[in-house]
């Protein structure tokens, strides 16, 4: 027997629809024409659904938190699009290709190894999203269910990658998808908070969904000997040792993150003051950090040598006509791969195609080091480890305040502001630590 919920257990919108249906049936039974009946009924309730909420919240996210849109927007889309192609089983057979299991009463395929005690133990289960759910009907359970599927997709990605890594004899990854679960919950919390502020929702059930505990951070600092080994491997195994060495020296001397290195421009190089300007995305402000005179010279020479150039006029010197004239602007990047130059039949410079480095160039550098140094593969060496190394070196040579200023972790309380080290003292410290480069590739 099917039990129909009573109006007391329904939402206001469901009660409204039930009332309209009852009135429609009554009027039709009294002999009214169907076309006339619709005009006699109360107006249909306009529901604000998840599909519309996600679209509007994504637009607001692009305006309010543009740096978070790339990460959070895809997770918000899970509520609308679901994961129709993802089965809940994390076994290698189901993670590396289409699920081989018939599911339902037919159970699992022989190659499937569904773990026991799973929330969803049937490979036929799918998450289809809740695009037509009214926002006011979103509950903690709805969000927790979507978060489970977000984590399961992340786990299946790790399993698929580990199958390839194991076949190649590489170290296995340990991610279990909890980072994806956290990002989904954080994104949903922000969205529903925005809906509450816009008076499109009354409460925020996402705040009741617990964040998963984080795994221990994988980043670590390198010893001096380890960094020398990494540096030597980088400049001896690639096709562009000058660029590889410059990238690693910049990461060590300036302790910047990958994004700050890529965003460094020629306009941010203060040659006279021997300092470099960075944009702090978190605090929305420009920061200047000192560097060494040798490193500043390396950056200038690198950008002049590999940056944009234009053809010299006919009355220019022979050298300028052969090599072109630098055409750097304040917005020109500092780091470039080898350019591609074009010359005429007389050997005079005509044009240049520059190749600013990208995120993949840095990732490729560290992937190459991990391939050639087994111990770096075991510790999963990455770009951020060099930042840790630089901070540790400054901390050991000075104190915590100097390290905080060096890493741009200074600030906080007013006391921290007044007690923090001066930039000129940090500049002297850098000269002592980093003035002599490890190698000279130029």
UniProtKB/TrEMBL annotation:
Transmembrane segments: none annotated. Keywords: DNA recombination. Gene3D superfamilies: Intergrase catalytic core. SUPFAM superfamilies: DNA breaking-rejoining enzymes. InterPro entries: DNA_brk_join_enz (IPR011010), Integrase-like_cat_sf (IPR013762). GO terms for biological process: DNA integration; DNA recombination. One of its GO terms (molecular function) is DNA binding. The keyword Oxidoreductase does not apply. This is Phage integrase family protein. It comes from Goekera deserti. The lineage of its organism: Bacteria, Bacillati, Actinomycetota, Actinomycetes, Geodermatophilales.
């Amino acid at each position: 027997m099917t039990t129909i919920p009573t109006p007391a257990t329904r939402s206001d919108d469901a009660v409204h629809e039930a009332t309209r249906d009852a009135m429609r049936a009554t009027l039709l039974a009294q002999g009214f024409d169907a076309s006339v009946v619709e005009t006699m009924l109360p107006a249909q309730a306009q529901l604000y659904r998840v599909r519309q909420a996600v679209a509007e919240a994504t637009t607001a996210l692009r305006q309010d938190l543009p740096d978070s849109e790339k990460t959070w927007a895809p997770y918000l889309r899970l509520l609308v699009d679901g994961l129709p192609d993802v089965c809940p089983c994390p076994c290698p057979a189901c993670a590396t290709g289409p699920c081989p299991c018939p599911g339902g009463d037919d159970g699992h395929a022989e190659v499937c190894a569904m773990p026991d005690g799973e929330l969803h133990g049937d490979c036929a289960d799918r998450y289809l999203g809740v695009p037509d759910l009214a926002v006011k009907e979103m509950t903690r359970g709805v969000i927790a269910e979507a978060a489970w599927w977000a984590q399961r997709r992340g786990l299946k990605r790790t399993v698929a990658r580990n199958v390839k890594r194991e076949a190649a004899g590489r170290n296995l990854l340990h991610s279990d998808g909890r980072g994806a679960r956290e990002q989904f919950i954080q994104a949903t919390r922000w969205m529903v908070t925005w809906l509450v502020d816009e008076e499109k929702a009354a409460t925020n059930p996402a705040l009741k969904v617990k964040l998963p505990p984080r795994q221990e951070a994988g980043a670590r600092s390198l010893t001096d000997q380890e960094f020398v080994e990494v540096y030597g491997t980088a400049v001896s195994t690639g096709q562009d040792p000058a660029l590889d060495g410059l990238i690693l020296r910049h990461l060590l001397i300036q302790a910047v993150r990958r994004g700050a290195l890529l965003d460094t421009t020629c306009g941010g190089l203060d040659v006279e003051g021997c300092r470099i300007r960075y944009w702090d995305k978190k605090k929305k402000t420009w920061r200047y950090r000192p560097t060494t005179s040798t490193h500043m010279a390396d950056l200038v020479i690198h950008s002049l040598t590999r940056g944009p150039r234009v053809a010299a006029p006919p009355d220019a010197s022979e050298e300028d006509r052969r090599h072109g004239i630098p055409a750097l602007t304040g917005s020109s990047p500092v780091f470039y791969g080898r350019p591609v130059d074009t010359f005429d039949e007389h050997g005079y410079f005509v044009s240049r195609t520059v190749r600013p480095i990208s995120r993949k160039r840095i990732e490729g550098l560290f992937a190459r080091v991990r391939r050639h140094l087994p111990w770096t593969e075991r510790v999963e060496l990455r770009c951020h480890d060099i930042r840790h190394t630089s901070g540790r070196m400054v901390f050991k040579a000075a104190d915590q305040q100097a390290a905080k200023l060096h890493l741009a972790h200074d600030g906080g309380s007013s006391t921290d502001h007044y007690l923090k080290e001066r930039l000129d003292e940090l500049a002297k410290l850098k000269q002592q630590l980093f003035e002599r480069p490890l190698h000279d590739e130029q």
